[in-house]
Design brief:
CATH superfamily: Vaccinia Virus protein VP39
Radius of gyration: 18 Å
Helix content: 25-40%
Distance between the termini: 23 Å
CATH topology: Rossmann fold
Strand content: 15-25%
Strand order of the largest sheet: 3-2-1-4-5-9-8
Number of strands: 9
CATH class: Alpha Beta
Largest sheet: 7 strands, mixed
Structural class: alpha/beta
Bound molecules: S-adenosylmethionine
Number of domains: 1
Length: 258
């Protein structure tokens, strides 16, 4: 169990919803997921945080099991959910799902980036998912051009390249922990050949994300918006972004169960 990650997000839980929850980029992820997770389906939310996504899916009639390493994050979700979402304090690497329990697996905004390698994900999806199911993962990209440009303008060269370090470090509420910027290739390798990449979308390449909103006062972003859209929607450049969403479909072949 990663105690620094748990400590960081326990401390962050009380303010998390003010800082990050109602963002435009979250709605963009929902637009993608809502086309795949239907009422009556059972979806597993990995690293659910305060559970905004779990609550969104549940409000649409999707049954949700939400897990997180941080007991404080789970408490926040339970306070909102009033039993509507099944919750568990658990590490996603060791979560024991029943066979063919889920119609979808979802993980939003970087929970997977706290995990050094994703071998566990391959085991989990093969055990827990029904054939035909989708996996929707929002993970942090290795290169966010706007962030690098901001650091370069401040002559902070190491910081400009910080996402290329392995591990890189993050600091949340004064707690430092390691983060890992997984490539699409690494996610593909973890999921295995039974999973087909259906969609790859970037969430902000040249435009500011929550936390960098102060930059929005610069008029230049008005002109960068269409280029950002192009970069984020093209699968070849979609991962050059703060976060990217990858959508995978389980096409089970004979003998593929791990
Ligand atoms: C940046 S937050 C994202 C939360 C939520 N998915 C959202 O979109 O708001 C990352 C979350 O992942 C959780 N997390 C990190 N490592 C984890 C692990 N190994 N198992 C379960 N949860 C983990 C953290 O506790 C935190 O709540």
């Amino acid at each position: 169990m990663n105690t620094s990650v748990r400590q960081a997000f326990d401390r962050h839980a009380s303010v998390y919803d003010q800082v990050f929850t109602s963002s435009q980029i979250r709605s963009e992820v929902w637009e993608i997921a809502d086309r795949l997770f239907f009422p009556g389906a059972h979806v597993l939310d990995l690293g659910c945080g305060t559970g905004e996504d779990s609550m969104h899916f549940a409000s649409r009639g999707v049954a949700v099991t939400a897990i997180d390493l941080s007991p404080k994050m789970i408490s926040r979700l339970e306070a909102k959910a009033h039993g509507l979402v099944r919750t568990k304090v658990a590490g996603m690497e060791t979560f024991a799902a029943a066979e063919r329990e889920f119609d979808g697996i979802f993980s939003n905004f970087g929970a997977l980036n706290c995990s050094p390698d994703l071998a566990w994900l391959g085991k989990l999806v093969h055990r827990a998912l029904k054939p035909g199911s989708h996996v929707v993962l929002t993970t942090m990209g290795r290169f966010y051009p706007l962030e690098s440009a901001v650091f370069l303008l401040k002559f902070q060269f190491r910081q400009a390249m910080r996402r290329l370090h392995r591990p890189a470090t993050a600091m949340v509420e004064g707690v430092r922990f390691d983060v890992y910027y997984h490539s699409v290739r690494a996610i593909r390798a973890a999921l295995g050949p039974d999973f087909e990449l259906k969609q790859l979308v970037g969430l902000r390449s040249l435009l500011p994300v929550p936390g960098l909103e102060h930059l929005e006062r610069f008029g230049v972003f008005k002109y960068l918006r269409p280029i950002d859209r192009l970069l984020c929607s093209n699968p070849l450049t979609a991962t050059w972004s703060d976060h990217f969403v990858s959508v995978w479909q389980f096409r089970e072949t004979q003998g593929s169960a791990l």
